[in-house]
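ESCALATION

Customer reports they have been waiting on this structure for their group meeting. Please prioritize. Original submission:
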Amino acid sequence: MKILLFVNTVQNFKNHNSLGGIEILNYELYKYLKKKHKIILSNTLSKKILIVNWDIVISSNDSRIFNQVKTKRKILWLHNKLQLEKAFRKKQLFSLLINDIEAIFVSKYLKENTSRLYNFSKRTVISNFLPSIFEKNKFSKNKKNKKNLFVWSVQRKLGLDELISVWKKKIYSLNLNCELHIFGVNYKNNKLNKYNIFCHGKIPRQKLLNFYKKSVGMICLGYDETFCLNAIEAMKIGLPVISLGKTALKEIIKDKINGYLIDNISDIDIPIKNLINLDSYRRLSLSKYCIKFASNYNSNIIFKDWEKLICSN
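Update from on-call: job pushed to the front of the queue and completed.
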């Protein structure tokens, strides 16, 4: 079976440290499928690719190539929302309307919030999976840090200004010996350091993993998440996730079991104080359930769904 996995990115797959979450998932799915199928991973449509009669073309987030490639099956792997206005602006609407496309959604939330005007032949949910670097990690119950570290690692700023404002007023002022470390976004502001807020920008995933190991909790508000791989990664290291429980995070966070749900961001000091004040037994129990839950997203489980999809029809 000849398969093309197309990724609309400028990233170099040979440099894993530079890859974002979606690119890592693309690459690791490719490595798995390569064991059983003839597959090409590409971010360009060269002449060699265009002349092949593919059995399956899987395109990550970009439907435009379906007008150019020759293939029996067209599978669109959707990680992000694709509303009509966005599809028109990105010049994908025509391709979506005229091609016989099977859609793969990374969450139930994304499936439910994708327009029914797209006449997909199939709508299937296959969750994202843990990158291998997190799967191989072994949990350590000894947090080697005297401070209570909390992490923001979502690569979007939505809600971050609100969080910082609340942190200054309700966390730092309580002298809880807490630090907030912000990763993944360019939010350089040295004036925040005096409030124990530190901005790091984008860092390699291995370094982020190591920082998780020293931390107490992860903050992901969930205003616009279609899956939130970062939350699952944090849970795999034993970190509960503090969230508003909006969007796709409704599917993965159970209050006081693998995280804390709040109704308003102004109340975020409550779960932070709860986490800090947990005794070692309760904190370990919480971490163990986070790890157990994250294991539902191990790649060997999710890859079986992909293999079943590939071999269908």
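Sent to customer with the following note: The chain has a mean pLDDT of 90.
Escalation resolved.
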